[in-house]
TrEMBL record:
Keyword hit for Heme: no
Cofactors: Zn(2+)
Positions of substrate binding: D276
Residues with site note (Important for catalytic activity): H218
EC number from the UniProt entry: 3.5.4.2
UniProt-recorded name of the protein: Adenine deaminase
Record lineage: Bacteria, Pseudomonadati, Pseudomonadota, Betaproteobacteria, Burkholderiales
Organism annotation: Bordetella genomosp. 12
The entry's keywords: Cytoplasm, Hydrolase, Metal-binding, Nucleotide metabolism, Zinc
UniProt-listed Pfam families: A_deaminase
Highest taxon of the lineage: Bacteria
Domain Adenosine deaminase: 9-316
GO biological process terms held by the UniProt record: adenine catabolic process; hypoxanthine salvage; nucleotide metabolic process; purine ribonucleoside monophosphate biosynthetic process
């Protein structure tokens, strides 16, 4: 089934480019930019990939992102991810990037965007992978900072297919960003948002009703709210589920307990995504393989999950 799963055409709708920074590239960029790292070698960095929750992962993720400085760095990061897509039958991708992770440490917005865009354009030509970039706001920072980031991005409006909301979820409900998302909507930018990963079902309701999102990122905790499940099924709201991430961050204690196939069978519009593949043990294919290894994933279910990902794309495909 591995070869079949590899060839199965699929889209990835929930991937943070900064989370695709593999330890080898992280060390290479640190050397290129003369940055001292707190880890002696690649192996000790890998050993640090052992998190108890979302925040512990994020602390490491932001530390790692500091090696990204130049346009070439962002190109190399994005290109490495796109090569993986090509190997795994991912024909379309809608990656997130977090400008604030870089602008807050002095890397100009334009440098970040230029490197990413050049790689996405090359992938379109050389690898046949279509894409749409999502401008994502860090929810642990104030609303004013998100608004400033949006204003900074608006001159490049056409570079983005949507805006998103990520980073620490608990204690940072979607309602805090209602005005930013209204402003983005007024500019014609649709929205997606992380909700219901660690946060409660109420955050999913807020993302739907206040941010008017077109997709929910994660959304697995919708499973706790019957009325919400019915609403999501009725509206066929896409949920971008990330199984390996959920297990590594202890949203589920084991892959055998993941509810994604139950959600699929219930009629929810779920897809399979990698979230932060370098940090969670794999890309889209490895996520499918993990489901196959620990849950009774049938070929029909796998095909439906892949078809859902393609159908929920916001950017033009192909
Ligand atoms: Zn995510």
């Amino acid at each position: 089934m591995r070869d079949w799963l590899t060839r199965l055409p699929k889209a990835e709708l929930h991937i943070h480019l900064e989370g695709a920074l593999e330890p080898e590239l992280l060390f290479a960029l640190a050397q290129r930019n003369g940055i001292r790292l707190p880890w002696a070698d690649i192996e000790s960095l890998r050993q640090a990939y052992n998190y108890q929750n979302l925040q512990e992962f994020l602390d490491l993720y932001y530390l790692g992102a500091q090696v990204l400085r130049t346009e070439q760095d962002f190109y190399d990061l994005t290109w490495a991810y796109l090569r993986k897509c090509a190997e795994q039958g991912v024909t379309h991708t809608e990656p997130f990037f977090d400008p604030q992770t870089h602008t807050d440490r002095g890397v100009p917005f334009e440098v970040v965007l230029a490197g990413i865009q050049a790689a996405l354009a090359d992938a379109r030509r050389q690898l046949g992978i279509s894409s749409g970039l999502i401008l994502s706001f860090l929810r642990h920072l104030p609303e004013a900072a998100a608004m400033a980031t949006l204003e900074q991005a608006l001159p490049y409006r056409d570079a983005f297919v949507a805006v998103g909301l990520d980073s620490s979820e608990a204690g940072f409900p979607p309602r805090l960003f209602e005005r930013v998302f209204a402003r983005a909507r007024a500019e014609g930018l649709p929205a997606v948002a992380h909700a219901g990963e660690e946060g409660p079902p109420a955050y999913i309701w807020e993302a739907l009703e206040l941010l008017q999102v077109k997709r929910i990122d994660h959304g697995v905790r919708a499973w706790e709210d019957e009325r919400l499940i019915a609403h999501l099924v009725d509206n066929q709201m896409p949920l971008t589920v990330c199984p390996l991430s959920n297990v590594r961050l202890k949203v589920f204690s084991h892959m055998g307990e993941h509810t994604v196939l139950d959600m699929l069978d219930r009629g929810l519009n779920v897809s399979i995504n990698s979230d932060d593949p370098a940090y969670f043990g794999g890309y889209v294919l490895e996520n499918f393989l993990a489901l196959q290894a620990h849950l009774p994933l049938t070929p029909d279910q796998a095909r439906k999950l892949a078809d859902n990902s393609l159908a929920a794309a916001l950017a033009p495909r192909g």
